[in-house]
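Troubleshooting: if your tokenizer reports a length mismatch, compare your output against this known-good record of 619 residues.
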Amino acid sequence: MPPDLLGFLAQHRVWGLISDSARQELLAHSEVLSLHAGEQVCRAGQWSAHLWLIVQGGVNLDDPELAQTHTLLPGESLGAGMTPWPLQQNCHILCTTDTRLLQVPEAMLKQLLSLEPALAPFLPLPLNGRNAETAADRQIATPSHDTQLLSMRLQALIKHTPVTLPPEASVLEVARTMRERGVSSVMLVQDEQLLGLVTDRDLRNRILANGLDLSTPAVEIATLNPMTLDPRSPACEALLLMSRHNIHHVPITHGKRLVGMVTATDLTQQQSTSPIYLAGDIHRQNTLEGLVSISRRIKRLQQNLSAAHTSAYNTGHVITTITDALTSRLIHLAEAELGPSPVDYVWVAAGSQGRCEQTAKSDQDNCMVLHDAYDPALHGDYFKALARRVCDGLAACGYIHCPGEMMAMTDQWRQPLRVWRQYFHHWIKVPDPKALMLVTVFFDLRVVYGQHALLHSLRQEVLAHTAKQSLFIGHVVNNALKQRPPLNLFGQIALIRNGEHAGTVDLKHQAIAPIVDLGRIYALAAGLHDVNTSDRIEKAAGAVDLSEQGSRDLCDALEFVSSQRIAHQSQRMQQGLEPDNYLHLAELSNFERSHLRDAFSVIQSLQEVLGQRYQSGLL
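Known-good structure output:
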């Protein structure tokens, strides 16, 4: 391995973030390709499971159908985790000059991601890209204005010459410059180097709100050494940076030279259904009608995420974030109408929203934990009205009322902390069928709005207790094993035989639900605070009869089945149909059917392990 590559990686904007030992491990398992100008790296549709880092030279991604060329230069990457699936299917990779590429196997990337979390924001696309594509897939995956951020470079979004002032300029001068130039930020530059950034929000929060003098030097209220990106970076990096750090302006620099600014508005003009745009738009609404209008875009958001082959894990988090935003805004509107709450409370998401696993086809499961100072005679009407407004508002936004009425608008699920303690104590002590059914909903709780401490204290007590209750967990296991994956005696996929959905597989109830049950059991047995199923399975590895390999297999099975569900729902929405969970195997390639069968086998095997451990104690 050429010794200069270690230095190249150490100086790289992404690979420089990881440890020296991780870079050495990366090089030890990678290969250097030396290619000549005009030489083809690979053909369209034949990209292998590698990431290529351009060390020297450059490559073009040539799309002959659209007559488009995407040029990549030294320091840039393509392939696994970086290049959207449609481009991999449509583009040839050609060297523009003599070129050196570092070819990193996908397996090495997975290992690094598990050890180096700092890499996650820079690999925006899921690993394990799809290996087959139907005509319907191609139709959905056609790049649109909403998915171009995955391949667009930031330089394409820079519209104007940077607006700059010296650091000693007064905040009054900054405000006047913003007004005259029609911008929402000014960059402070000295000796051609970026020192800081002042936004309209800084003027409001740091000057006006604190009553500071308008002659105050701008550098005193600026964000110094702001996070920056290179103009050749994918636009989605700016999207991720803004989402993770709650910022709306990202300076663009080439080396030390300032070349422009990209704002959240620039991105949302390209991607009107991005999570940032939707969440921001939700919080600007002052009526239920406005929220209902925005909620109609959620289906399109899921289609865009599916078209970009975003992982099911990330898709669930994004869709759930929008649900949380709608819920929070509905609470704000209700409080504005009813007045401030008379005692502290917390609004809690349960079910798929609680686990951050929602799709565009979801009902609502929620509850309220009230402070023990709650008095039904004094406060009951207020919280009943609040819960009714929020639950009915969610229903208007497309989240149907829970058929089992497990919602905060139901009196039983809007109770003070002391009552919730009694609920959980009874369910654990007397795990009858109704209690076990409630466990599947109310053990997956997550704060959406309000006083976090109320739920935190309840969760602490419950998990400390359940981890010691093997008999209770045995009943939970026994209840969970009633739902088996659809495999027949010969290990083949068994289809629904009768009824409206005959000839299909119910991906939600026959595949995803059993995995969710397993994750919940692992969390209860190990006393884990995690709520998301993948996080539970990963954290439980090596404990409660779940090996490291079993954990990886089950996480992969969940990701695969969930991705198929999301793709199926997106395809139905593309056809103007309501999303559902019933998959016809004809929608899959032979390769995908084989993986679906393997996923069901993994579920079945791990169910049997838990059954052997716990069920004997119930006989």
